[in-house]
Automatic annotation (TrEMBL), chain A:
PANTHER family: DNA UTILIZATION PROTEIN YHGH (PTHR47505:SF1)
Record's protein name: ComF family protein
Family indicated by similarity: Belongs to the ComF/GntX family.
Residue ranges of domain Phosphoribosyltransferase in the record: 148-236
Cleavable signal peptide: none
């Protein structure tokens, strides 16, 4: 008997040829919780990785969404983030789950995503250095851990803490889109020797991609330090 | 968090790394790695914060839950007013035990690399996480300074209502037990008027300077009880606790709380009344039972209230292990409505075909005709959606409510006001919601979810008012079950005992 990592309901592994042969991945979530995840599939925006099937056609031009077009029109931000890929749609269920992970501090939950995250990394970011999105010291102490660091740790590749957060978060989730996009102050600084970043392909790892503003703020710091390309991988979009 | 230990006056004490005495050079370690600590000496002549005393007395809290600066808390520790205890202990078998919720299941502990204590595997409890994380590296705090003292001269019951003979018998029994250690079950039918039965016993306890807690599984009940108690005990400090409550009356003598909030209390109460002791989630969650037992003092009196005690509780009552008193009759003195069984064929198959059993449809149209409201209980959320869709197509004033329904409160309110005639619901409304002039029907009464106690509670929704004491209760079924027969027998038995 397994117990669901999220709701603690007992369940049995599905029986199929793969499981009989011992090839199946470990199942962490019960059937009900598993079915609440919406995996991002099909056509996505080539930059931010959002699923085109989920929003009106008029916000799309060819392979990009309007939000990304706006980023790319801006001289400062053009090409800063090569692409983002996310595992799941940030639906109500995932919001609950991520809030339990971050605000309740249930670090264990990340272990339910190891295989899936590794899979996307292999497909989309092979060879990239993983850099977790940092927290400020205050927030890090309060939470006891950094969820982005835990997620990056699942990938099984080199993790470099290349960026530091120098400005304490006013909770991002409480800021408006406008406030986030303005970004007048500098919130990140390079945290390692430039040599560790120069010429490297980097994938920033975080829990959620919302407007992409925070991730681009970190990306520009890496770009300035000479990184070849910066992309991002998140659990939710 | 990291602590250092040091010797002072022959005792082993501890201090957070940031507040260690200047002459201490020991390396900081996570709290659980400290040697066994001695209780610090109490310095009675030094002043202490009455606010902190009120906040912390009878409780077990983490630093994060205390809205006071660390240096102030630590000063009280050095003065012997509080102690630091492990949040997660290791029992003799080597497995972890959460000192807040009592969890000892290995799968409900996990670890992470902790920024606070710098351990790569800092263990935490996943069971009581919603109340704030308890990890191994951080202590819990207990008050051990001067006891709270309430002004009991002002305590008086201001209530001039009358108790029925059966209520009085139970009330007297409770009054006579106040001050004793042990347990008492008050087994009262739905609509017996349980709250009034408690008044005299609670008054006696409060007058004796005891700290009293009324615990109930549901927030709605806390909200309903608070104003009533405030009215009848005007001279008493009273606090209501439930998830998200913001009331600030720390150190209150009388506390009305959801059972969940009791996790934060330790050896606090001389009298604990546990309402609906059989109700979900109480009966299904052993750790809530743990919470109740931890919250009361060792020599406290524990009073259980229930209309439908569990089999185990009934058995120990009948064997004489559990003192009990019964209130077999409703406060208005009329008998409980006895359910009638009505066969309705294979209703699941019919639902699949998009139809309802004809006698169920007849019942709904009859209710609308005679202008009486009705509850229609169904066994699952899936069935609920189907039944609501089918009924809405044919009748006005139909609404469906289930536990996850975001409009649950509004819909129940509409039903109370009479704007909804028939409410289709799962077992979530089996308790608590009381509306006069209401009849009750169950569709699929043979389903497992309708246990004896669920059916007795459901039947108890009708005939609650003295102006309409004889509601109708129908169990539509596809084959009668023992639970249905037992529920009917239970109700008839109570009526017989009351000689009605």
């Amino acid at each position: 008997m397994n117990y669901c990592l999220y709701c603690d309901k007992g369940f049995y592994d599905p029986v199929n040829w793969r499981s009989v042969l011992g090839l199946a991945d470990e199942v962490h979530f019960c059937e009900v919780c598993s079915s609440s995840f919406e995996r991002i599939q099909g056509e996505v925006c080539e930059i931010c990785g959002r699923s085109f099937s989920l929003f009106p056609e008029k916000y799309r031009q060819e392979n990009r969404c309007n939000d990304c077009l706006r980023w790319e029109e801006d001289d400062k931000w053009r090409g800063i983030l090569a692409k983002n890929r996310s595992l799941y749609v940030y639906n109500d269920f995932l919001k609950e789950l991520i809030s339990r992970l971050k605000y309740r501090g249930d670090a264990e939950l990340v272990n339910g995503f190891r295989q899936e995250l590794k899979g996307v990394y292999r497909q989309e970011f092979k060879g990239c250095v993983a850099v977790p999105m940092p927290l400020s010291r205050e927030r890090h102490y309060e939470r006891g851990f950094n969820q982005a660091q835990l997620l990056a740790g699942l990938l099984g590749v080199e993790v470099v803490h290349a960026v530091n957060r120098v400005l304490h978060e006013k909770k991002q989730s409480k800021k408006s889109r406008r406030e986030r996009l303005e970004m007048r102050e500098r919130i990140f600084m390079l945290g390692v020797d430039e040599e560790l970043v120069k010429g490297k392909s980097i994938v920033l790892v975080d829990d959620v991609y919302t407007t992409g503003a925070t991730i681009r703020q970190a990306a520009i710091v890496l770009k300035e330090a000479g990184a070849r390309s910066i992309a991002s991988l998140t659990l939710a979009r | 968090m990291r602590f250092v230990s040091f010797f002072a006056d022959g005792k082993t004490l501890a201090a957070p790394d940031a507040l260690k005495p200047p002459d201490v050079s020991a390396a900081p370690v996570p709290f659980y790695k400290l040697p066994v600590l001695d209780p610090p000496d109490f310095f009675g002549h030094l002043p202490f914060s009455h606010e902190l005393q009120a906040f912390l007395s009878g409780k077990l809290l983490s630093f994060d839950e205390l809205p006071y600066p660390m240096d102030m808390i630590h000063e009280h520790y050095l003065h012997g007013c509080l102690t630091y205890v492990k949040g997660i202990a290791v029992d003799v078998g080597g497995s972890f035990v959460c000192k807040r919720c009592g969890n000892d299941k290995p799968r409900l502990f996990a670890s992470f690399s902790c920024f606070r204590c710098k351990e790569t595997e800092c263990v935490y409890c996943r069971k009581c996480l919603v109340m704030g994380r308890i990890s191994r590296c951080t202590p819990l705090v207990r008050w051990c300074g001067p006891q709270l003292d309430w002004r009991v001269d002002d305590v008086a019951l201001e209530w001039d209502g009358d108790l029925s003979a059966a209520q009085k018998k139970a009330s007297d029994q409770m009054v006579s037990r106040i001050g004793d250690e042990g347990e008492l079950l008050i087994w009262a039918v739905c609509g017996a008027g349980k709250t009034e039965v408690l008044f005299h016993g609670v008054e006696k306890a409060l007058k004796a300077g005891q700290r009293v807690c009324l615990a109930t599984p549901r927030t709605d009940v806390v909200l309903e009880l608070l104003p009533r108690l405030r009215k009848v005990f005007p001279g008493v400090t009273l606090a209501g606790l439930y998830g998200g409550s913001e009331e600030k009356s720390e150190g209150a003598q009388l506390i009305v709380s959801t059972t969940h909030q009791l996790y934060r209390f330790r050896e606090a109460f001389d009298l604990v009344v546990v309402d609906e002791v059989d109700a979900f989630p109480y009966s299904y969650d052993q750790s809530l039972e743990y919470a109740v037992h931890q919250a009361k003092k060792g020599n406290a009196l524990l009073v259980y209230l229930s209309a439908t005690p569990s089999r185990k509780m009934k058995k120990s009552a009948s064997l004489g292990h559990l003192a009990h008193v019964r209130i077999p009759v409703r406060f208005h003195g009329f008998p409980l409505p006895v359910p009638r069984f009505v066969w309705c064929g294979n209703w699941k198959k019919r639902l699949k075909k998009g139809r309802l059993p004809s006698n169920v449809v007849d019942w709904v149209s009859h209710q609308l005709e005679v202008k009486r409201q009705g509850f229609l209980f169904v066994p699952s959320v899936a069935a609920l959606h189907q039944v609501v869709a089918l009924l809405k197509a044919g009748f006005p004033g139909i609404e469906g409510v289930h536990a996850e329904d975001p409009e649950r409160k509004e819909k129940v309110m509409k039903f109370r006001k009479g704007e909804v005639s028939i409410v289709v619901t799962t077992t979530i409304l089996e308790r608590g919601v009381t509306v006069p002039f209401t009849d009750v029907a169950v569709l699929g009464a043979e389903e497992d979810i309708f246990t004896e106690s669920a059916l007795v509670q459901i039947a108890g929704r009708s005939g609650r008012s003295k102006d309409d004491p004889a509601g109708d209760v129908l169990f539509f079924h596809y084959g009668r079950t023992n639970a249905m027969v037992d529920a009917k027998r239970h109700i008839e038995g109570m009526n017989k005992e009351a000689e009605l």
